[in-house]
Amino acid sequence: MKKSPIIALDFESAEKTFEFLTVFEGDVNVKVGMQLYYKEGPAIIARLKERGFDIFLDLKLHDIPNTVKSAMEVLASLGVNLVNVHAAGGKTMMEAALEGLDKGTPTGIKRPSIIGVTQLTSTDERQVKEEQLIQASLQQSVLHYAKLTKDAGLDGVVCSVQEAAIISEVCGPEFLKVTPGIRLPENDVQDQKRIATPEEARKEGSTHIVVGRAITGASNPRAAYEQINALWKGTDRNG
Ligand SMILES: O=c1ccn([C@@H]2O[C@H](COP(=O)(O)O)[C@@H](O)[C@H]2O)c(=O)[nH]1
């Protein structure tokens, strides 16, 4: 995917999505999540591809290895750039996902990159301990899932900016660190727990940032995107 921020298209319909995208060209990356994909199906991917967007299909697969493998085989045929699974599904499941993706990718086409979700950015230390009953710290849990994801042969992880530097150290700078939970100081945190600014993401070694409501909920989404893009790339005068 391009280095630009990945805009999370968390909209209820194709109509709302393309209304929002009227001010954007194909030079931006977009993310299609469960809400939009479940509503519109593969047709939304085809339409976004026609407009030239690089696409992260964020369906976070988590099931038994055979099911995930078959599902990935289908997703591979859509021609998106990036897909993901939950690392908590285990190493065998992630290997199966990769196998399905390889099998389903048409000859002569680059296979989509595949990353594992470590701990959601809406998860905090208390939930890891009390709800997941994990005795390790949140950071140790994220790092453990990152190593497992790398061992399974995947291309990277979804994590928060807070864990990006340690993951780079352990898994290498090329290992993708796709980081949601991006907020400007003036934005509401909403349901996220582990947030960071675009500058922090750049400094900590995120390879990609995912930004939803800070752009889609802004009064001028294009201006919000430009501001975030400049801060992320370090070209903002105050960044
Ligand atoms: O750990 C994760 C994994 C995925 N997401 C997704 O990213 C966007 C973030 O949206 P905001 O509006 O910027 O909070 C959203 O589509 C999530 O499904 C995540 O936030 N955290």
From TrEMBL:
Record keyword Lyase present: yes
GO CC annotation, single: cytosol
GO BP annotations, alphabetical order: 'de novo' pyrimidine nucleobase biosynthetic process; 'de novo' UMP biosynthetic process
Orotidine 5'-phosphate decarboxylase domain residues: 4-228
HAMAP family: OMPdecase_type1_B
Quaternary structure (record): Homodimer.
Family note: Belongs to the OMP decarboxylase family. Type 1 subfamily.
Name this protein carries in UniProt: Orotidine 5'-phosphate decarboxylase
Organism: Sporosarcina luteola
Lineage: Bacteria, Bacillati, Bacillota, Bacilli, Bacillales
Gene name of the record: pyrF
